[in-house]
Write a structure and sequence with these properties.
Elements: H1 7-18, E1 21-23, E2 28-29, E3 34-35, E4 39-41, E5 45-46, E6 51-52, E7 57-58, E8 63-64, E9 69-70, E10 75-76, E11 80-82, E12 87-88, E13 93-94, E14 103-104, E15 107-108, E16 119-121, E17 126-127, E18 132-133, E19 137-139, E20 144-145, E21 150-151, E22 159-162, E23 167-171, H2 191-201, E24 215-216, E25 221-222
Length: 227
Amino acid sequence: MKRGISDSAAASHKDWLRQFLCISEDVLLGKNVRLSKFINLYGCTIGDNTKIGAFVEIQKNAMVGKNCKISSHSFVCEGVVIEDDVFIGHGVAFTNDVYPRATADGRLQSEADWVVEPTLVKKGASIGTGATILPRITIGDHAIVGAGSVVVADVPPRAIVAGNPARLLRYVNGDGSIPAKLRGEHGRLSMSTLRRALIEEMPANLKIWTLPAVRTGAKNKRKDGLP
């Protein structure tokens, strides 16, 4: 018995799959682009060999280069340019409006009421899960943005940044490896070492509370002495 399915069954299967993809006719797809289910692409350009995860939206006039990985639940808005070999983690959100408003003069805003602000992610950069990227910035080539960071300013090439707002921790070595101070015992970039490095880089007059205050005693006083 011949394995596989008939041509008609394959065509039917493709039609069934299309209901989970929303890709407009004006999307430009390169060669060997891999698309997951439940994505929304319109008016954008995707380069060769790039992989788009589930529940990703890429808006018009956004560009994604070759050999990129856009992980699930990420949002790439209009005005964003992502160069080749870039990694975008899960749930990363780009923005393109410095002062967003729903209405203008008592009516819902239209495209005529605001200006799209650009963002550029240079070749080989990596952006960790849950990061938020504000507009009008450039993330330099081979830079690393830590998970959960809020990036409000340009990130230099090969810089490692993390935090809210994102702060410079170290630079990636010339050969692309992570500096030893940020590597765990298995050579991986760990969250504990990132936190320590972030605290080390903070100004001395900025007090860091690592644990919530605990109320104790009959008078419900706090252990830290604060009211």
